[in-house]
Amino acid sequence: MLLKDKLIETKNKIDSLDAEIIFQHVLKIDKAKIYSDIKKEINKKDLSSIDLMVEERLKGKPLAYLIGKKGFWKNNFIVTPDVLVPRPETEALVEVILNENLQGKTLLELGTGSGVISISIAQENRDCFIFATDISIRSILVAKQNAAKFCCENIIFLNHDWNNEWLFPRVDYLISNPPYVDKEATTGEEEGIWYEPEKALFSKDKGLSDLKLILSKGKNFLNENGKVYLEHAPNQYEELNKFALKNGYLNFSNLNDLNGDKRVSIYQC
Ligand SMILES: C[S@@+](CC[C@H](N)C(=O)[O-])C[C@H]1O[C@@H](n2cnc3c(N)ncnc32)[C@H](O)[C@@H]1O
Q1: Which residues, other chains included, contact 253 with Cβ-Cβ below 8 Å and sequence gap of 6+?
Q2: How far apart are the CA of 178 and the centre of ligand 1, in A?
Q3: Is 100 exposed, middle or buried (0-12, 13-18, 19+ CB in 10 A)?
Q4: Full DSSP string of 140-191
Q5: Which of 36, 39, 100, 157 is the residue whose CA sits 20 to 30 A from 195?
Q6: Which residue, by CA, sits nearest to atom 4 of ligand 1?
Q7: In angstroms, what CA-CA distances link 20 with 25, 39, 201, 233?
Q8: What number does the ligand 1 atom closest to the CA of 114 have?
């Protein structure tokens, strides 16, 4: 079968961009080469790999899990079904923290997943030091692979459950994109999330339970002038602000992501 005919067939089944990415992945060529090779034959093995991936995509499996990587900030990160697929909204959190002077500073990231937040920060600030934790040992393994890929030696990855005792030193910045989806409010129609680790997505108390726990425990682990940076859902910031003020924080600010939604909040004692 000609590449051209297979590409047309695939684009009729799934999103055009997804089809091109699957072709690039299976045929191990870049986008320009797909179109310069458009009149070439595709071998049977590649045809069946494409069919298999299209089938999975049609069932809703995230493209990142099919091709094993996802672009985030300035890199392509390794992604497996053991980690959340990094979201573009999370780049807002990275952008805000990178506005700080991180020279010689210590950071703690809770729930690092594939490591995208810590690695994006560490790469641009080789002399800050980061502790990055996750309850999932499998995600720590993926994060470590990513850190090695991008030569980040200033991160220590720790397998830790934030419900247990915190044995960390005080830090200048505590960062987290914890699970914050309210499972009760999901409809079942959400694309892709049913393939992702439950622990990476859902939190009790309308999605606020982990955010609140991190705020209340985190306060005792901040150096003077330290700050907590949190990603959350757009409808959660007011409740979080109230909770923070009741729990000893004095200042907060709520920032928008690229869609104009309140997605990142900063809390300071
Ligand atoms: C929303 S994901 C964020 C992953 C990554 N930081 C990102 O932004 O793509 C939340 C992460 O928190 C971790 N997590 C969930 N509950 C946890 C707990 N009790 N202690 C530590 N990590 C936890 C999950 O395994 C998951 O990797």
Answers
A1: 265, 266
A2: 5
A3: middle
A4: HHHHHHHHHHTT--SEEEEE--TTS---PPPEEEEEE----B-GGG--S--S
A5: 157
A6: 113
A7: 9, 16, 29, 31
A8: 5
Q: pLDDT for 178-196, tens place per residue?
A: 999 999 998 877 777 789 9
Q: Report helix, strand or coil for 76.
A: strand
**Which 3 state secondary structure label does DSSP give 3?**
helix
Helices then strands, each counted (H, E), the chain: 11, 9
110 CA → ligand 1 middle, Å: 7
Cβ < 6 Å from ligand 1: which residues? 84, 86, 90, 110-114, 116-117, 133-136, 139, 161-163, 177-179, 199-200
Q: Probe ligand 1: pick from 85, 199, 210, 230, max atoms within 8 Å of CB? A: 199
Give the closest residue (by CA) to ligand 1 atom 27.
113
User: Closest Cα to atom 11, ligand 1: which residue?
Assistant: 111
pLDDT, tens only, 45-83 = 999 999 999 999 999 999 999 999 999 999 999 999 999
Which pLDDT value is given to residue 247? 95
pTM (2 d.p.): 0.95
User: How does pLDDT run across 198-235, given as a tens digit for each residue?
Assistant: 999 999 999 999 999 999 999 999 999 999 999 999 99
The amino acid at 118 = S
> How much is the pLDDT for 193?
78
